[in-house]
Amino acid sequence: MEQYVKIKERQKIEDNLRVKIIETMSVSGGKSMLTLEMLELTEEYVQYKFYPEGKKDNFGIVQVNRKNFKNRFIVKEAVDVSDMYQVMPMFRVGKLVQDGEFPETSACAWY
Description:
globular, 30% helix, 2 helices, alpha+beta
């Protein structure tokens, strides 16, 4: 059991070190680096549409398994953007699933 706890703690630290996610709420009307809108929530998975730099004309779709948040993939890629815009939605939605949160909209930024 102790080893399991250590592995979980290490995993959490590694996840936090990979990309530091900053929550952003667009109260001021500013654009976030990534905007998410829920498309579908089932017992099995959740899907979010994601918009790099808030540009609604270029979106992708990410799907994450609700029972295993590490089972996540891009259903539709956003085009002509850096790889971070394909990876961050998977991390962000995976974190939402891990926390048991399913907001209609969400946003994140990174540096």
